Amino acid sequence: MIIHHGSFHSLNGNNFLNDEIVNGYMRMLALIHGNCYTMISQTMTAVINRVASTQRIHLLTKEKLADKSYITGVDNHHRNHWILIAIDFERKVFGYYDPLGPRPSRSIRGTFTAVVKYFKIRNEICKDDTIIMDRFKVVQLEGLLQSDGSSCGVFCLKMAEQLLTSGSINERLLRHTDIKKVRMEIGLTLLTHSGKLQLIAAKHCIS
Questions:
Q1: Rounded Cα gap, residues 81 and 157, in angstroms
Q2: Whole-Å CA distances, 164 to 87, 111, 140, 161
Q3: Which pTM value belongs to this model?
Q4: What sign does the dihedral 195-201-203-207 (CA atoms) show?
Q5: 118: closest CA among 67, 56, 160, 38?
Q6: Neighbours of 157 (CB within 10 A)
Q7: Burial of 122 per CB tally in 10 Å (0-12, 13-18, 19+)
Q8: Which of 50, 129, 143, 145 gets the highest tally of CB atoms within 10 A of its CB?
Q9: Alpha carbon distance 177, 179 (integer Å)
Q10: Structural contact between residues 48 and 118, judged by C-beta atoms closer than 8 angstroms
């Protein structure tokens, strides 16, 4: 995965995080955790909107998912808001986190149904690596709410980190309130793991 230096500017000020930063950080979390697969935002967004192309379905056929404890991903909702999806297969929990606050249960159930439908299609292709999502508990994850109109991605990334660090999906509260500091931490963490992520980063991109 490559992150170009220009993408780091989305961590500055109150900018909206772009796909490369979001996908890079989520990928880093999966590498650290070891038993988690991260679906890139473009695919997760297509899945939730039920417009996943055959090509995107086949991309996931190359990944062995049945032995993973978690599958996570971030949805670019209406192309202007990040929402975290976290699936815990060991505990059979489907977690949904919106930094703007609770959403109607019907909306969340619709998201869950879309994800289940996607994996059913994939199962027809990958009969030796099926993903079964029967009897899952659908929960709305509680955390700090964003106080601006652009830091949703920051909250989603830190919530994902906290969930994977704690080892389970639950309603843990985010402890980060200094958003500018957290944005800096995200950038520095990505640079620290640049060897694994193949970052193409220029110096002094984050201020």
A1: 13
A2: 11, 21, 16, 5
A3: 0.88
A4: negative
A5: 56
A6: 26
A7: buried
A8: 143
A9: 6
A10: no
Q: CA 150 to CA 18: how far, in whole Å? A: 11
Q: What is the DSSP letter of 5?
A: G
Residue listed under structure tokens 């961590």: 11
Per-residue pLDDT of the chain (207 residues; tens, 9 = 90+): 778 889 999 999 999 999 999 999 999 999 888 899 999 999 999 999 887 666 566 667 778 899 999 999 999 999 999 999 999 999 999 999 999 999 999 999 999 999 999 999 889 888 899 999 999 999 999 888 888 899 999 999 999 998 888 755 544 445 556 888 889 999 999 988 876 655 554 443 444
Number of neighbours of residue 94 by Cβ within 10 angstroms = 22
| 137 contacts 170 by C-beta, under 8 angstroms | no
Tell me phi and psi for residue 64, to 5 degrees: -85, 110
Q: What tokens were used for 190?
A: 């990505």
Return the closest-CA partner of residue 35 out of 92, 117, 93, 90: 90
What are the DSSP E strand ranges found in 68-162?
70-77, 81-88, 93-97, 137-140
